[in-house]
Amino acid sequence: MMHLLTDLGFFRRFVTSSKDGDARIWDVTLRRSVICLSGHTLAVTCVKWDCTVKVWETTQGKLIRELKGHRHWVNSLALSTEYVIRTGAFDHTRKQYSSPEEMKMAAFERYNKMKGNAPERLVSGSDDFTMFLWEPSVSKHPKTRMTGHQQLVNHVYFSLDGQWIASASFDKSVKLWNGITGMFVAAFRGHVGPVYQICWSADSRLLLSGSKDSTLKVWDVRTQKLKQDLPGHEDEVFAVDWSPDGEKVASGGRDRVLKLWMG
């Protein structure tokens, strides 16, 4: 698994994880590993695979906090601020910046607006069928334990405005949770196979899911109903993503085909 780190506007580093139990931070400019994050006792996938969640300071590789509670592998993690960290200064307006300094300032403004006065929240999903909502900067103890899935939780994702959490499970369902409290809101059912991945539209009104049943489904958060079915893949759909402008959806699957869907 590889995950890009952004200096709020400038992609310079990325982090990888490995079966050797380490995560490594790489510098794109230097073209080498600059920090090794060790401490996990089992294989690390998605930068997060044993029964614990470890929070690191990335400039020196210092372990800040260890979050314990899950009884099996942690499959997925999501930050409430993840979208603005990933996109930096760029949003659906496609605004152009006159200098790197202006771009960096815009990125900080977006991040601070998204974060507000509350601490960043982290959600984890596990093979133990549960999810935990954390505030790592405040406590090592979970804020809420989220139960309801009947099989392993494969993917968790905050809505882009941080108000919702969506989860995908091998129990063939997608569940919607309150992004602040972690309370259960609704279950979206319609897939006939495990749900592998989910993603949000830029306005946080729609949710996309991809499944082993070879389909993508678009769910309406307001009505809590299926809005659109997107068949077309000939096998399992492993990956889905929504463009920041909300106009396109991409999907990839076991049929070795990448599909682009227009909104």
From TrEMBL:
Transmembrane segments: none annotated. It comes from the Eukaryota. PROSITE patterns: WD_REPEATS_1, WD_REPEATS_2, WD_REPEATS_REGION. WD repeats lie at residues 146-178, 188-229, 230-263. Keywords: Nucleus, Repeat, WD repeat. CDD domains: WD40 (cd00200). SUPFAM superfamilies: WD40 repeat-like. GO terms for cellular component: nucleolus. InterPro entries: WD40/YVTN_repeat-like_dom_sf, WD40_G-protein_beta-like, WD40_PAC1, WD40_repeat_CS, WD40_repeat_dom_sf, WD40_rpt. The keyword Nucleus applies. It is found in: Nucleus, Nucleolus. SMART domains: WD40. The keyword Repeat applies. Its main location: nucleus. Guanine nucleotide-binding proteins (G proteins) are involved as a modulator or transducer in various transmembrane signaling systems. The beta and gamma chains are required for the GTPase activity, for replacement of GDP by GTP, and for G protein-effector interaction. G proteins are composed of 3 units, alpha, beta and gamma. This is Putative G-protein, beta subunit, WD repeat protein DCAF11/LEC14B.
